[in-house]
From TrEMBL:
Positions of the ABC transporter domain: 369-602
The organism of origin for this protein: Nonlabens spongiae
Main location: membrane
A molecular-function term among this protein's GO annotations: ABC-type oligopeptide transporter activity
Annotated GO CC locations: plasma membrane
Keywords: ATP-binding, Membrane, Nucleotide-binding, Transmembrane, Transmembrane helix, Transport
Transmembrane region(s): 20-40, 89-114, 178-210, 282-300, 306-326
Protein name as it appears in the record: Antibiotic ABC transporter ATP-binding protein
Length: 607
């Protein structure tokens, strides 16, 4: 129930709908009970059990209200019957119909108001979940499968709605039905009511035994669902590799193994859930059957009127129905607990990279970026070891070296995708840990090796940093990035949808859109993470030309694999195993005849 309470906190903004739902459910339960009570005079009219002469009673106080009400009904029914029997029957039936109409009207209104609460809570949970996902550090998603996160945001939140939030209404509606019915039953016969109350807890205990393992089984189902959604997401993203390596059957085997496990877990869960309905149905009929026998003997003995007993049976059944609904709801709570646990795990994850209290907002970059004795490790082995570098404003610094030497890690640390573990990174003398993330990242534009584009228009992708950018701003950025030459020929120009991950474009075209995005942001610091390494010679020339344009008058940190792209850099840093092994200009490093000279010769031989 702890997770249930946490989910309920999201209902606070919608409490007015909850209050209106409770009010409607009170009237629903009241008119539902009265509709069965009203059957008593109908039965008396039909079976003419009111041959006695009754006089109009006199009100003597609240303590005698039961006797007064019973005597008044008897007097009124006999008085009307003596005048016109048909009229009496029509009046009694009309009364029952009106009561049932009011019951159903308030039942609908209760559902009407709870709908806004349920859907509002789900909207807020999904919004908060998305907010959390986009704000959690990159390191969180290196340990989580994307498909599992998607499953939590979709299937698990839906499970919360169909279990927890459905219970919200049952918590008020069904107990009120039981309460009002019990009051009426006690007025009819205390002895029969006690007899019914003995059986209901027993049947409830039996049903609860069935649902003990539901949470564990539901958790297995939801976890496995997240796993095969991850496989599906990875398959869609890697279809070229799968087909190119004839790995279709291998991937299919992995996927079918997952769906088989899901099949087994889901069968166990559904069979246990399905057992609840026939068991509760049989126990309910058992109670009714026993009640018929016990109450029937009381009718034969004259301890209770036959018409009252029929209405009592209707009320008893009216108790069993909500009682079964409550027992089924307990299953929903167990399933909802598993789903809520998975959703709340993300919502309660501590964000290790966020603004400190009193984080400062820095003005435009003016002096230098300094990395001082920076040490960093993703797991245990350090990727950077006491790394120190000074990048002055307006200078271009290139980082070169073998794969795994720590080049891209520096870009991740500068943007605070990760935090340094030892040492410090400062911008204009301010430790970036003390700077607000927004103002820090406002200073930087990034172009990565993998062109990350979204399934939207060219305009939306280019103007990602400024949703208010004009078409003129977007076209200007495209021209600077050498991208306008192909964008202008698209069917709808800048309003053309480029497909999933920019799938409708070539690699060079996608990269030039990424550069246009950086151009439009117009940040003073430019980070280029192997921006040309995946391109053919012609595309590289166009992209390199675009990069040289935007690097003018900007501070640039260039992570390069192809050394031909960084020969004009102001300063070149050669890295090896997380440390600086050489640094200087292109000519200075060639003259040293060291690591850089070897790298240049190696690439020349490959060319």
């Amino acid at each position: 129930m702890n997770y249930f309470k946490q989910i309920l906190t999201y209902a606070k903004p919608y409490k007015r709908y909850g209050v209106l739902n409770i009010v409607c459910n009170i009237f629903y339960a009241l008119f539902g009970t009265l509709s069965f009570v009203a059957l008593v005079p109908v039965m008396k009219v039909l079976f003419q059990t009111t041959e006695e002469e009754y006089v109009k009673p006199v009100w003597t106080g609240i303590r005698e209200s039961k006797e007064y009400l019973e005597s008044y009904v008897n007097w009124y029914v006999t008085d009307v019957m003596n005048e016109n029997q048909d009229k009496a029957l029509v009046m009694m039936i009309a009364l029952v119909l009106i009561l049932f109409l009011l019951k159903n009207l308030f039942g609908y209104l209760g559902m009407y108001f709870i709908t806004f609460l349920r859907n509002g809570v789900m909207r807020d949970i999904r919004n908060e979940l998305y907010h959390k996902v986009v704000n959690l550090p990159i390191s969180f998603f290196s340990e989580k499968r994307k498909g599992d996160v998607i499953a939590r945001a979709t299937n698990d939140t839906q499970q919360i709605q169909t279990s927890f939030l459905s219970v919200l209404e049952l918590m008020v509606k069904e107990p009120l039905n039981i309460l009002f019915a019990l009051v009426a039953m006690l007025l009819f016969s205390v002895k029969l009511t006690i007899f019914v109350l003995v059986f209901i807890p027993v049947s409830g205990f039996i049903i609860s035994l069935i649902g003990k393992r539901l949470k564990k089984q539901s958790d297995r189902v939801q976890s496995e669902q997240g796993y095969f959604l991850s496989l599906l997401e990875e398959t869609l993203g890697g279809l070229k590799v799968i087909k190119g390596f004839n790995a279709e059957s291998r991937m299919e085997d992995t996927f079918t193994d997952s769906t088989q496990r899901y099949y087994n877990y889901a069968n166990k869960l559904e069979l246990r859930k399905g057992l609840a309905s026939p068991v509760s149905e049989f126990l309910g009929i058992l109670v009714i059957g026993t009640l018929l026998w016990f109450g029937g003997t009381m009718v034969f003995d004259g301890d209770i009127d036959g018409a009252i007993f029929i209405s009592f049976m209707g009320l008893a059944y009216g108790i069993l129905t909500p009682a079964k609904a409550i027992s089924k709801a307990s299953y929903g709570v167990k399933q909802g607990n598993a789903a809520a646990e998975r959703v709340l795990e993300i919502l309660h994850t501590q964000n290790t990279i966020e603004d400190k209290p009193g984080a400062i907002e820095i003005p435009a970059f003016a002096k230098a970026i300094q990395l001082k004795n920076v040490t960093f490790a993703y797991n245990e082995n350090p990727v950077l070891k006491n790394f120190t570098l000074n990048v002055e404003k307006g200078k271009s610094v290139a980082l070169v070296g073998q794969s795994g030497s720590g080049k891209s890690t520096i870009a991740n640390l500068l943007t605070r995708f990760y935090d340094v573990q030892n040492g410090s990174i400062t911008i204009d003398g301010h430790d970036i840990k003390n700077v607000s993330l927004k103002t820090l990242r406002d200073q930087m534009a990034i172009v990565t090796q993998d062109s990350i584009l979204f399934n939207d228009t060219v305009a939306v992708n280019v103007a990602l940093s400024d949703k208010n950018a004009t078409e003129e701003d977007i076209i200007k950025a495209l021209k600077v990035a050498n991208a306008w030459e192909f964008v202008k020929d698209l069917d709808e120009g800048i309003h053309t949808n480029i497909g999933d991950s920019g799938g409708k474009l070539s690699g060079g075209q996608k990269q030039r859109l990424s550069i246009a995005r950086a151009v439009l942001k117009n940040a003073p610091i430019l980070i280029l993470d192997e921006a040309t390494s995946a391109l053919d010679t012609e595309s590289e020339r166009l992209v390199q030309d675009a990069l040289e344009r935007i690097m003018k008058n900007r501070t640039s940190i260039v992570i390069a694999h192809r050394l031909s792209t960084i020969q004009n850099a102001d300063h070149i840093v050669v890295m090896g195993q997380g440390e600086i092994v050489e640094q200087g200009t292109h000519e200075e490093l060639l003259a040293k005849n060291g690591h850089y000279y070897a790298l240049v010769n190696m690439q020349s031989l490959r060319a």
